[in-house]
């Protein structure tokens, strides 16, 4: 398998196809897996950190690989990491992976490209049986970054926007790796993957 086959099969054929199907269902107003897509995209971001060329691939654990490819998604994502306003890996990726929920109050929405508003509930501000929340925040779509923290203390994740930035970063990486002389071999990480349901 060469680098083209790798991207066509695993990245575009499996990762991207699964997310695109869910986005299309959301556009058709069919039930779509917003939390599942968010989890998938965050996991895929970490996996793609292992695909980066050696000059940008970190040596170390999962978080370093996640952060490395997260930076490839664009300036808004770089700013989130550099400002350290939120711990993206811990709050979003680990929350969804290990606890099913983002570790803070979060709204996960599927679509971004249609203009409009998204109400993001405020976080809980009390302990006890009666829930009290900070005021909601109205997020104007389309947005520039697929996830973030709002002034009311709540988090958001917009699947369609994050996916667009993820896909663009994958395509750019694919072209970069293809242009290397010689092109690198696909990472060992995927060498034994197979799927009876794959393309």
Quick structural gist:
The chain is 47% helix and 11% strand.
Indicate the overall shape.
globular
Biggest sheet character: 3 strands, mixed
The count of helical stretches stands at 6
What's the helical proportion of residues?
A: 40-55%
The count of strands amounts to 5
Polypeptide structure, described:
- This protein has helices spanning 3-27, 34-49, 62-72, 75-83, 88-99, 159-179, and strands spanning 106-109, 116-120, 137-141, 147-149, 155-158.
- The protein has a 3-stranded mixed beta sheet with strand order 1-5-4. A two-stranded antiparallel ribbon has the order 2-3.
- It has one domain (3-124, 133-180).
- The protein starts with a helix and ends in a 20-residue tail after the last helix.
- A hairpin with a 5-residue loop joins β4 and β5.
- Helix content is 47%, strand content 11%.
- The protein has 199 residues and is mainly alpha-helical.
- The longest helix has 25 residues, at 3-27.
- The mean pLDDT is 89.
């Amino acid at each position: 398998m060469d680098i083209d086959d790798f991207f066509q099969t695993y990245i575009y054929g499996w990762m991207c196809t699964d997310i695109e199907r869910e986005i299309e269902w959301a556009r058709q107003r069919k039930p779509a897996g917003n939390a599942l897509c968010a989890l998938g995209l965050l996991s895929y971001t970490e996996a793609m950190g292992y695909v980066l060329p050696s000059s940008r691939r970190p040596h170390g654990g999962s978080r370093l690989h996640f952060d490395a490819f997260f930076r490839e998604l664009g300036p808004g994502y770089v700013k989130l990491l550099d400002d350290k306003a939120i711990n993206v890996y811990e709050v979003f990726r680990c929350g969804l992976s290990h606890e099913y929920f983002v570790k803070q109050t979060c709204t996960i929405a599927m679509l971004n490209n249609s203009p409009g508003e998204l109400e993001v509930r405020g976080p809980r501000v009390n302990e006890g049986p009666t829930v009290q929340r900070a005021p909601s925040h109205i997020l104007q779509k389309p947005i520039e970054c697929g996830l973030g923290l709002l002034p009311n203390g709540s988090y958001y994740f917009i699947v369609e926007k994050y996916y667009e930035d993820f896909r663009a970063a994958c395509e750019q990486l694919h072209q970069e790796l293809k242009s290397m002389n010689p092109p690198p071999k696909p990472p060992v990480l995927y060498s034994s993957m197979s799927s009876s349901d794959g393309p």
